[in-house]
Design a protein that fits this description.
The chain has helices at residues 11-25, 28-60, 65-93, 98-101, 120-135, 137-156, 162-178, 180-196, 210-213, 226-232. The termini are far apart. The relative contact order is 0.16. The protein has 233 residues and is mainly α. The longest helix has 33 residues, at 28-60.
Length: 233
């Protein structure tokens, strides 16, 4: 199919040159940092953010622990599914990488020979960010922020058009949100079953100490001290 952006007068291409032009003016070491961050760093950061959210949710416990963990399980599944959906999209659009049709770009990563639309990195990070938002809003906002940064990095590196990134954001968001009700309906009962398991229950809810399992006190109520418990015994 025809390339989506043929002319340098195209706003998509103009924005590409504006953002990628920052790489030409930046120090060499900064470009190397952006190369690592855009290619690997932010993906690793997203995985760590999901793990951090899981640790926080399981420690907090509560009746919604199983559904929250189910949403966290859905986040990487949504990312993987979105990438699979992107395979036929790329084959249908057949958009070359921007450096193939446009000269003067400062390309920070070599060896990119596949098609450009849609950006896998933008798709994965946004699907993870939106999936996190379903599970926990604060962590989700942080994840969406990382996804936006990933999109900027891909254009800065000269390997994607801005619309490649926007398309990835839209695809990741659509998969994560539209299939979320079905995913939650399937994963929540599974997580509840795991929570009841004596061996795997810690994956959903942190085990509490015996002394903490007894009375749930109302605000302002007196909690017996250790010496009072010993006297009572």
């Amino acid at each position: 199919m025809a390339v989506l952006a043929e002319s340098g007068s195209n706003p998509d291409v103009g924005l590409l040159y504006d953002i990628n032009g920052l790489a030409k003016d930046a120090p060499h070491w900064f470009d190397r940092v952006m190369e690592f961050v855009g290619e690997y760093g932010l993906l690793v950061a997203m995985v760590l953010l999901v793990l951090w959210c899981w640790w926080s949710v399981r420690r907090r416990g509560g009746e919604d622990a199983a559904s929250s963990v189910a949403a966290l399980v859905w986040a990487p599944l949504a990312a993987g599914l979105a990438v699979l959906v992107n395979v036929p999209i790329r084959g249908f659009v057949e958009r070359p990488r921007p450096f193939v049709d446009h000269r003067g770009l400062d390309v920070l990563v070599s060896g990119k020979t596949d098609f450009s639309f849609v950006s896998d990195h933008a798709t994965i990070t946004m699907a993870l960010g939106v999936g996190l938002f379903v599970a926990h809003r604060r962590f989700g906002l942080a994840g969406i922020g990382l996804a936006l940064l990933e999109g900027f990095c891909r254009v800065y590196m000269g390997v994607h058009y801005p619309t490649d990134v926007v398309g990835g954001f839209a695809l990741g968001t659509a998969v994560a949100l539209l299939l979320s009700p079905l995913a939650m309906a399937l994963l929540t009962p599974l997580m509840k079953a795991v929570q009841r398991s004596p061996r795997a229950g810690w994956l959903v809810r942190a085990r509490t100490a015996p002394d903490d399992q007894d009375n749930t006190l109302l605000p302002g109520a007196h909690r017996p001290t250790k010496s009072e418990k010993d006297l009572a015994a």
